[in-house]
Amino acid sequence: MIHREAGLTERKYDAGLYLPHRSIPVFVPLGGENRTNIVVTTGQPLISEYNDTVALRFPGDRAFIEAGLRSIIVLPLIYMGKVIGTLGLRSREVRAYVPQEQQILEHLANTIAPAIENAERIAALVAPALENALL
User: Fold this and answer.
1) Dihedral of CA 126/129/134/135: which sign?
2) pTM over 0.90
3) CA-based nearest residue to 3, from 132, 122, 120
4) pLDDT tens, residue by residue, 57-113
5) Are 112 and 77 in contact (CB under 8 A)?
6) I need a labelling partner for 57 at 20 to 30 A (CA). Which of 38, 39, 98, 129 fits?
7) Which contiguous run of DSSP H or E holds residue 101?
C-alpha cells in the first residue's frame, strides 16, 4: 500500500516462498531505488530477471537469487486513476512473465485494486469504533 502523506510504501501481505529476512509489515520510504517505487512512479508494470547484474542495482535481490527465484513482475494497483499499491509475483522460471501472463496479471490487479481500497477505507472507519469499544 502507498502512504503518500507519510512518504512510505507498506508491504502488508506476503505469501509463497518463506525467506527469513522478509517480514510484514515493512515500511519503505517512497522515492528509493526499488521496483515498487519505479512502478508507483510510472504506473506501469515492471518485469525483470534476477541475476548478478540486476542485483548490483537492487541489492535485496541477492536473497531471492539464493532462494532460486529467477523472474519478477510488479504491477500497479490502480484505483480511480491513482496507484494505491503494487502486486509483485516471483518465479523460479527465467522469463516467466511473457505478454500473455502479463495481460492476465494486469487484469487481476485491476480487479483487486478496488477491493483493496474499499477494505482499507472500511478498516480506517472501523478502527476508531473498535478502540472506543475497548475503552
Assistant:
1) positive
2) no
3) 120
4) 887 788 888 889 999 999 999 999 999 999 999 999 999 999 999 999 999 999 999
5) yes
6) 98
7) helix 99-134
In b/e form, how buried is each residue of 22-61, taking b as 16+ CB within 10 angstroms? eeeeeeeebeeebbbbbbbeeeebbbbbbeeeeeeebeeb
Query: Across-strand partners of 89?
Result: 73
In this structure, are residues 114 and 77 in contact, taking their beta carbons and an 8 Å threshold? Answer: no
Residue linked to cell 487484469: 107
Measured between alpha carbons, how far is 123 from 127 in angstroms, rounded to an integer?
Answer: 6
Cis peptide before 25 (omega within 30 of 0): yes
